[in-house]
């Protein structure tokens, strides 16, 4: 029964989704704002590449945080935010690649191919993006219904994507690995929080 | 207990009330900085600017080049003693004091001696040289340096026959250099050149850029500029110059022996193990400026003879 003036659980989930969606949009708006006001610094291409790459990783980790949050809080509705967050990860990852092939390499495909095959950090990053494509493509209700149990197996690819993305970050840093180390630590923590749940299922 | 305490410490000062040495030192530094900042506020902008302007001759070096803006040259820097971010040096270098300054000349020389910055600047007429600078990370700038050929200093230093290499040691002051408090690299920063590279007329000791004394973030008060090598070869805030017989281990060689060699000549044919060196991004090109092909020896072909017969893939 709903009291007058209060909102139903379904409504509050919708509101949570809207808030999450708008929040996820902010880093992109910020980039456009900084771009139009000439505040991207001396190396704007690097800025855009770093920013979109970082946000892709952040959304990947946030979407991986949903399961532990649900388990720890006992509130199942958190799962409703996962697809949205995962798709934003995909969006930032695509923008990251677009910045690389367009702004950085100006669609110089021979040079891009050389860069990918010769340099492990680029190869690892490119692999991570390729693996997110089937995940994004099967993120709709119809795919979930059609793939049934296989959907879950397929979407476990996200763990591999995370490992590749973190490796990509770790390898590209010249010397100071503080920043990638922080993200790796978060990932390890998120994986560790899953352990008790896996044991209790057995 | 109480009486006993009072006898040894008649003023009754608690240990917790005594200012630790480090805090005391910080406070002095703060007062100095605050004083400088206040002085800066009182001085009209123009007189400060004329204070820092250098007298120099123009030269033909790079006069056809398009300069990277002063803003970009002074805000996008690799200077790990002030932090590993590109904007860290411009933000963190304000406490650093480039004057007074002295450079130790030591090792295989007739007589070890010390040279003040003022003495250094009188060894040869200061000249402006516009050089391309290619960073090992794959970006480049064009910078109007003001300085004097390193050769002038070497002639003055009178190295002995045992001097085969020159070593440049940079400032390492954890008090004023926040990055130097962290074990990111093996401090102090050490760079080196072979004697013939050091004597090459292009090799410059820069004391200024854009006609003014070097900003702290660009290596004040004096730095090395070797335009045909990757930027990291240019040691900043040089405190000593040492002549040695054997090839020195430089800081980056120690940090990544597979990735950074002693020579570090700009070479589009030899990639960094992790990224490409065949092209570079000129700073100042904006979002849609694209890349340009990197040239052998950064386009300074005249240095090629220094390396004739050498396998530059092996001696990278």
Automatic annotation (TrEMBL), chain A:
Upper classification of the organism: Bacteria, Pseudomonadati, Pseudomonadota, Betaproteobacteria, Nitrosomonadales
Record's keyword terms, sorted: Cell membrane, Electron transport, Flavoprotein, FMN, Heme, Iron, Membrane, Metal-binding, Transmembrane, Transmembrane helix, Transport
PANTHER family for this protein: PROTEIN-METHIONINE-SULFOXIDE REDUCTASE HEME-BINDING SUBUNIT MSRQ (PTHR36964:SF1)
UniProt similarity note: Belongs to the MsrQ family.
Assembly: Heterodimer of a catalytic subunit (MsrP) and a heme-binding subunit (MsrQ).
Cofactor note as given: Binds 1 heme b (iron(II)-protoporphyrin IX) group per subunit.
Species in which this protein is naturally found: Methylophilus aquaticus
Function of the molecule: Part of the MsrPQ system that repairs oxidized periplasmic proteins containing methionine sulfoxide residues (Met-O), using respiratory chain electrons. Thus protects these proteins from oxidative-stress damage caused by reactive species of oxygen and chlorine generated by the host defense mechanisms. MsrPQ is essential for the maintenance of envelope integrity under bleach stress, rescuing a wide series of structurally unrelated periplasmic proteins from methionine oxidation.
Domain of life: Bacteria
Protein name according to UniProt: Protein-methionine-sulfoxide reductase heme-binding subunit MsrQ
Topological type in the membrane: Multi-pass membrane protein
InterPro entries per the UniProt record, alphabetical: Fe3_Rdtase_TM_dom, MsrQ-like
Span of domain Ferric oxidoreductase: 52-165
Location(s) in or outside the cell: Cell membrane; Membrane
Transmembrane segments: 12-33, 53-72, 84-103, 119-137, 157-174, 180-199
UniProtKB/TrEMBL annotation, chain B:
One GO MF term: oxidoreductase activity
Family statement drawn from the similarity comment of this UniProt entry: Belongs to the MsrP family.
Enzyme class: oxidoreductase
Cofactor(s) needed: Mo-molybdopterin
Cofactor note: Binds 1 Mo-molybdopterin (Mo-MPT) cofactor per subunit.
Reaction(s) catalysed by this chain's protein: L-methionyl-[protein] + a quinone + H2O = L-methionyl-(R)-S-oxide-[protein] + a quinol; L-methionyl-[protein] + a quinone + H2O = L-methionyl-(S)-S-oxide-[protein] + a quinol
UniProt-listed PANTHER family: PROTEIN-METHIONINE-SULFOXIDE REDUCTASE, PROTEIN-METHIONINE-SULFOXIDE REDUCTASE CATALYTIC SUBUNIT MSRP
UniProt keyword Metal-binding present: yes
Residues covered by the Oxidoreductase molybdopterin-binding domain: 97-252
Subunit organization: Heterodimer of a catalytic subunit (MsrP) and a heme-binding subunit (MsrQ).
The entry's keywords: Metal-binding, Molybdenum, Oxidoreductase, Signal
EC number: 1.8.5.-
Protein name, entry field: Protein-methionine-sulfoxide reductase catalytic subunit MsrP
Annotated Mo-molybdopterin binding sites: 77, 80-81, 135, 170, 218, 223, 234-236
Known role: Part of the MsrPQ system that repairs oxidized periplasmic proteins containing methionine sulfoxide residues (Met-O), using respiratory chain electrons. Thus protects these proteins from oxidative-stress damage caused by reactive species of oxygen and chlorine generated by the host defense mechanisms. MsrPQ is essential for the maintenance of envelope integrity under bleach stress, rescuing a wide series of structurally unrelated periplasmic proteins from methionine oxidation.
């Amino acid at each position: 029964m709903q009291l007058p003036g209060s909102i139903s659980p379904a409504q509050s989930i919708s509101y949570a989704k809207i808030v999450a969606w708008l929040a996820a949009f902010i880093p992109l708006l910020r980039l456009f704002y900084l771009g139009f006001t000439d505040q991207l610094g001396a190396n704007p291409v690097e800025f855009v590449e770093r920013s979109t790459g970082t946000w892709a990783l952040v959304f990947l980790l946030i979407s991986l945080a949903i399961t532990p949050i649900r388990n720890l809080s006992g509130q199942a509705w958190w799962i409703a935010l996962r697809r949205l967050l995962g798709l934003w990860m995909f969006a930032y990852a695509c923008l990251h690649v677009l910045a690389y092939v367009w702004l950085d390499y100006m669609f110089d495909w021979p040079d891009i191919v050389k860069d990918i095959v010769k340099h492990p950090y680029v190869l690892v990053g490119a692999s991570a993006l390729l693996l997110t494509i089937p995940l994004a493509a099967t993120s709709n209700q119809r795919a979930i219904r059609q793939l049934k149990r296989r959907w879950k197996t397929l979407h476990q690819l996200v763990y591999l994507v995370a490992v590749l993305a973190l490796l990509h970050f770790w390898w590209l840093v010249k010397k100071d690995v503080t920043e990638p180390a922080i993200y790796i630590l978060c990932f390890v923590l998120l994986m560790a929080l899953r352990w008790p749940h896996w044991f209790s299922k057995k | 207990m109480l009486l006993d305490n009072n006898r040894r410490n008649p003023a009754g000062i608690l240990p917790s009330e005594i200012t630790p040495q480090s805090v005391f030192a910080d406070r002095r530094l703060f007062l100095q900085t605050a004083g400088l900042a206040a002085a800066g506020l009182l001085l009209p902008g123009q007189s400060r600017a004329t204070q820092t302007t250098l007298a120099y001759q123009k030269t033909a070096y790079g006069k056809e080049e398009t300069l990277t803006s002063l803003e970009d040259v002074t805000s996008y820097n690799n200077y790990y003693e002030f932090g590993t971010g590109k904007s860290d040096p411009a933000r963190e270098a304000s406490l650093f004091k480039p004057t007074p300054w002295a450079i130790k000349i030591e090792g295989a020389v007739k007589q070890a001696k010390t040279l003040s910055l003022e003495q250094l600047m009188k060894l040869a007429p200061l000249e402006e040289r516009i050089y391309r600078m290619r960073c090992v990370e794959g970006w480049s700038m064009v910078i109007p340096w003001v300085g004097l050929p390193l050769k002038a200093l070497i002639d003055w230093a009178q190295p002995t026959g045992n001097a085969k290499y020159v070593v440049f040691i940079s400032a390492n002051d954890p008090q004023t250099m926040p990055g130097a408090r962290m074990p990111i690299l093996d401090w102090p920063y050490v760079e080196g050149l072979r004697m013939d590279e050091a004597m090459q007329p292009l090799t410059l000791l820069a004391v200024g850029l854009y006609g003014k004394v070097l900003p702290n973030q660009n290596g004040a008060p004096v730095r090395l500029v070797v335009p045909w090598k990757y930027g990291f070869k240019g040691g900043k805030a040089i405190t000593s110059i040492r002549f040695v017989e054997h090839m020195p281990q430089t800081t980056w060689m120690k940090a990544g022996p597979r990735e950074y060699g002693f020579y570090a000549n700009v070479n589009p044919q030899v990639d960094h193990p992790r990224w490409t060196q065949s092209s570079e991004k000129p700073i100042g090109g904006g979002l849609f400026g694209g890349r340009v092909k990197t040239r052998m020896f950064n386009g300074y072909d005249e240095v090629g003879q220094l390396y004739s017969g050498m396998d530059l893939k092996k001696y990278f």
